[in-house]
Amino acid sequence: MTRAVRTVAAVDLGAESGRVVRATFDGERLDAAEVSRFAHLPRPVDGILRWDLAGLTRDITAGLGALGTDAPVASVGVDSWGVDYGLLRADGTLLDAPTCYRDPRQLVALDEALATVGRDRLYRATGTQINEINTVFALLSDARTTRRLDDAATLLMLPDVFHHLLSGSRVTEFTAASTSGLYDMVGRRWAVELAEELGIPARVLPEVVPAGTDLGPVVGALGEGPLAGARVVAPAGHDTASAVVATPFTAPGALFVSSGTWSLVGVETPHAVVTPESEAANLTNEGGVAGTTRLLRNVMGLWLLQECRRAWARQGLQLSYAELVELAAQEPELRSVVNPNAPEFLAPGDMPARVQAYCERTGSPVPQTPGAVARCVVDSLALSYRTTVEDIAAVTGTPPPAVHITGGGARNRLLAQATADATGLPVHCGPVEATALGNAAVQLVALGELADVAEVRAVVARTAEIRTCSPRPQARWEEAAARLRQMTLDDDRRRGLLPS
């Protein structure tokens, strides 16, 4: 007897573009088809870099409306990048447009938090990497420099802002909450005492629910169209958590690299790892599905190349990602290296000039052409993955046996080979659509179509195309990794994250 096909809608928001995906499961295969894609970028409003919430809402609504009525859509869920949030008034209306983690105010707020409670308190209360992008620093800035929190009744992490618009729910999902820098990953609760020490009103912190929670029916106009009768199901709201769900690991303890605007590099663990060693390595603990934790590091990621492309386009030079990778492949490897997480690379701007200035300041040969700049970025990302592998192995006592790259970066053959060479590990690339597949899969588990994460990964493994790169170890990668570690130490001291 043929099994009925089940259809769900996955809204996947990246920090450069978003899309609506129709996912179908026939009992054997889980397939994802893009229905719509839209570009978006933050823009300054009232002196703060903000996301265009109205534009995102319009584009998501249009994409969901284009799903069609041929096959009933059982549910819909939204995932997005972490850390950003919206504020609701008591009546459920949104206070204003969500602010963006790239706003310079967060660097100032990080310094203020360090001066107020110190690095140890921030880390040990949450298990979260000290990083200026964290929600806690935006909220600290809100509390000290604006009146935003005065009228706020509820904070929702960004994917749950859209769940609220779809269903009226006022809860936030665990994996998204865990990126805030204000959630206790050991106690599995909001770090209320830390919030109060920083002057952030704990009253705005919402109920946290697990991935797979049914948030209610779709309401409003969408509930009368293609989504008539559909449920809103919270997937793993953080896009990396969704991607990890759909990563078909070849061995226990393998490293994941969720590669997009950011690269999130880490391993799954059964519980949070909050130790002096993890603090010294500045590793973060983020929520996973089914009670797991992702022990990882945030690496700046393909944002560097995205901003380079935009800068070159403003100069009249249009280069696709494929063309840029081809140019980079013609350049010698490891000639120039930067620390991708240096603070000067965080905000939008002339990224090629910033890469060149960093190289000049640190004594690396200054890349002059787009190909040389791109090669510098690719090699630097691969080296950052290597140092993360080493740090995770030192903290957990277990070296990862392989690397799995998912997301858009899985298409970048040069980055994959550089990662294999840098880490000395086999690198498995794919699925590219891991985030949308993971989003959809959690919905299907909630609907009773799939049993658990293990079955999800088995389905993905027989559905997705996976490409493998074998390592070509060379001594030059050892030397370059040592250079990157020294750069990172120097940059952390400049930021006040380490003693001078």
* Share of β-strand residues: 15-25%
Q: Rg to the nearest angstrom?
A: 22 Å
Q: Which parts are unreliable, with pLDDT below 50 for 5 consecutive residues or more?
A: none
CATH architecture of one domain: 2-Layer Sandwich
- The CATH C-level class name of one domain: Alpha Beta
What is the average of the pLDDT values?
A: 95
Strand order of the largest sheet: 17-18-16-15-19-20-21
Helical residue percent band: 25-40%
CATH superfamily of one domain: ATPase, nucleotide binding domain
Distance between the terminal alpha carbons, to the nearest Å? 70 Å
Give the strand tally: 21
Find the CATH topology of one domain. Nucleotidyltransferase, domain 5
How is the biggest beta sheet arranged?
7 strands, mixed
The geometry reads as globular
Number of continuous helical runs: 17
**Alpha-beta content class:** alpha/beta
